[in-house]
Amino acid sequence: MPGAAVARVVVDVPHAHLDRPFDYAVPDSLDAAAVPGSRVRVRFAGVLRNGFVLERVARSDHEGRLSPLQRVLTPEPILTQDLHRLLRGVADHYAGTLADLLRLAVPPRHARGERRAAAREDSATGGHEGGRDDLWRGYPTGAALLQALRQGTRPRAVWSAPPGPAWPRMAASLLCAARAAGGGACMVLPGRHELRQAIQSLPPCCAAEAVELHAELSAEARYRRWLRLRRGDSRLVLGTRSAVYAPVADLGLLLLWDDGNDLHAERQAPYPHAREVALLRSHQQRTAVVVGAHARTAECQRLVETGWARSLEPTRDALRGWAPLVRATGDEVEAVRDVGARSARVPSLAWRAVRDGLSSGPVLVQVPRRGYIPGLRCGGCGGPARCPRCAGPLGMTVGRALRCRWCGTPGTFSCADCGHTDVRAVSVGSVRTHEELSKAFPRARVLHSDGEQRLDVVPEDPAIVVSTPGAEPVAAEGYAAAVIVDGWASLSLPVVAASQEALRRWMAAASLVRPQPAGGRVVIVADPRQRAVQALSRWDPSWAAERELSERRELNLPPVQRLAEIVGDTASVAGVLSVVSLLPDVEVLGPVPLPEGEDGATQERALVRTDVSRADRLTSALGSAVAEHSRSRAAGRLRVRVDPVDLGW
Ligand SMILES: [Zn+2]
Ligand SMILES: [Zn+2]
Fold first, then answer.
1. pLDDT tens per residue across span 493-545
2. 644 Cα distance to chain centroid
3. How far is the CA of 363 from the centre of ligand 1 (A)?
4. Over 70: is that where the pLDDT of 236 sits?
5. Which residues place a Cβ less than 5 A from the ion ligand 1?
6. Minimal CA–CA distance to 542: which of 305, 261, 264, 188?
7. How far is it, in rounded angstroms, from Cα 406 to Cα 371?
8. Ligand closest to the CA atom of residue 589
9. What separation in Å is there between the alpha carbon of 476 and the centre of ligand 1?
10. Alpha carbon of 369 to ligand 2 centroid (Å)
């Protein structure tokens, strides 16, 4: 209530034990400007700091004199109640602080941006293709979903997008339908490349008002666009991960694309994941939510199996018209038969696919990034070598003994899948593919795309396009063929969800290939018995996700468990464990020593996990332990991550 004497302020201090609002007196001169949500300057422990007014209250519980607000930087109500509740919820979920979340979610103030926010100059450009409702006809419940969005009811769905280039136009249909109901809509995408595709697919009506948010914007542009949304001048935003916090008025639909992509995981504390933020926001603000991807994550499968979300899958008939023909070929077997071929690394089936494909268009060759992958794989089936006690990754000590990299248990290996007892190190050798292909197809043009030098599109002419996963350029009329070499390397990735991630990468590449009726074919060089390979061959992402989820259940891994990683010096890790281990039903793995950091400091890592139904108790205990750590003067290093995507496999 403006006019009340006291302002309750969230102060930007980087200390977990100070993660609560503080009361300040409101001087008469600032009474009108210090509205709830406004940005202010306050004196805190003798230092001037930024903060936000949460609310105005008549009296404070604080005993003694309150210090006054120093300045109101802007009366613009930035921290709305909805946003505050969302950020508080995310902070609690990740054992982080509100100040951390404010830094991630709210762009810094920019005075000129504030003055110019009403201008419409930076609407998204594009918008020529238009949403395509007809594409949704391949989905038995597609029409019902669009209808529900248009009527402003708030459906929740996990969407298995069809192979091919249709997904941005189908997404545009969903956004348009939600806007037709009058509510706002927000789409979150992993990277600029996908963002561009989505923007270009908006029909003119939506393109005119769409606001684009991403990390490369200038501070002024970012703040200006953010304010346009906050003021309700636009109700449609598309952006990369922090767009999930965008202050869209009366949000009706949250749409998240490709949630398995690790670009959705924030790199700064408390490392929130855009999918989890979107789910929490949709719950708090009662919005519709659709999580779409070619492949499906175990997290989304769980939403379907618990009945929280509906599964949107195309009919098998529709799928046959969209998907390329996929063939798998094991590398070892074929390589032996290939004596006399120019290269042993790419088997004959793959060579033929390249050769035939080149007669009718560009051919995509997906190669894994070069490098060393930590962790070991089974010498028999090539699956990850897991610890029999905690399902963590086995590693090899200097003395070549096996030891779990999570719980530290020394041990022997026996594969639960194939019974083999020997292990192999995983490393992706020098990627000579570019050179080999140039030699084998001397008349073909060979293009290269990777994370550093990425091509966005390739022309329709025959060419071999060698790309690392995630950097594949789009071919205007689709690739004639794709070859995925060294598929096993993706199956050995250092993540909890190696098989899921492999399928995600392969489906992304295969989705760029023409459908089978138009001659499109995909060859994958990997063991055809592997789940991800089978799922790709049949184009059945929900089957793979079902298996993935039940495996995670057996192995006690997220999303059926909540798992937190605690990294720091010995005393700091022990301090957190002393609090957390008091909880019933919490399992502690480790601590184990980590390789020395760049500064030579020794660090340890412990993992704690508990059933997801008890997760709130774990994260709140972690939050108190972090606060306790921050209070102590001799505080050493400490980092806590909840459900990290890259759990040092
Ligand atoms: Zn095995
Ligand atoms: Zn273990």
1. 766 788 899 999 999 999 999 999 999 999 998 888 889 999 999 999 999 99
2. 10
3. 33
4. yes
5. 378, 380-381, 415, 417-418, 420
6. 305
7. 22
8. 2
9. 41
10. 28
Reduce the DSSP state of residue 290 to 3 states and report it.
strand
DSSP annotation string for 156-217: EEEEEPPSSTTHHHHHHHHHHHHHHTT-EEEEE-SSHHHHHHHHHTS-HHHHTT-EEE-TTS
Name the DSSP letter for residue 398.
T
301 Cα: distance to centroid of ligand 1 (angstroms): 25
Q: What are the tokens at 19?
A: 């993660």
Query: Residue 637 C-alpha to ligand 2 middle, in angstroms?
Result: 24
Kind of pairing between the strands at 47-57 and 6-11: antiparallel
Please report which ligand is nearest the Cα atom of 377: 1
Q: Give pLDDT tens digits for 178-230.
A: 999 999 999 999 999 999 999 999 999 899 999 999 999 999 999 999 999 99
- Ligand 2 centroid to Cα of residue 590, in Å, is 8
Whose atoms come closest to the Cα of 387: which ligand?
A: 2
Q: Please give the single-letter amino acid code of residue 147.
A: Q
Cα–Cα distances in angstroms (integers) from residue 53 to residues 13, 47, 71, 230, in the given order? 15, 18, 12, 16
DSSP 350-385: HHHHHHHHHTTS-EEEE-PPPEEEEEEEETTT--B-
pLDDT in tens, 360-415: 999 999 988 766 566 688 888 777 888 888 888 888 877 778 888 889 888 888 88
Phi–psi pair at 427, nearest 5 degrees: -145, 145
Q: How far does the centroid of ligand 1 lie from the alpha carbon of residue 421, in Å?
A: 8
Residue recorded with tokens 């956004």: 175
Alpha carbon of 562 to ligand 2 centroid (Å)? 17
Residues 6+ apart with CB under 8 A from 255: 171, 174, 175, 185, 186, 187, 188, 289, 290, 291, 292
What secondary structure letter does DSSP report for 36? T
Which ligand lies nearest the alpha carbon of 414? 1
Three-state DSSP class for 240?
coil
